[in-house]
Design a protein that fits this description.
Layout lengths: L10 H13 L17 H26 L3 H20 L1
Helix pairs in contact: 2-3
Length: 90
């Protein structure tokens, strides 16, 4: 047997909500926003590489926290050491 729930909406409240949300809507920026000095392509690549290594390191650390098997723990420990080394070199 299905239960049927009937919902009634007050149209006056709906209109007020529409009016408030439209008044607070922000206009779209006409030009993309940039922060800080522009980076050279090499600097952008280095920054992207560093971010990738940081994300991989965070993932490996999270995996290490839940690792159960000794071999998996060893592998993750080695991976973390290698990622730290790469991060130090970049």
């Amino acid at each position: 047997m299905r239960a049927v729930i009937q919902l009634e909406y007050c149209s006056r409240d709906g209109e007020g909500l529409r009016a408030r949300t439209s008044s607070f809507s922000r206009p779209k920026p006409s030009a993309p926003r940039t922060f800080g000095p522009g980076l050279t392509p090499e600097e952008r690549d280095a920054q992207a590489r560093r971010t990738t290594i940081q994300l991989a390191l965070a993932r490996a650390r999270a995996d290490l926290e839940v690792a159960r098997r000794p071999a998996h723990t060893r592998m993750l420990t080695q991976a973390i050491a290698a990622l730290k080394h790469q991060l130090a070199q970049s």
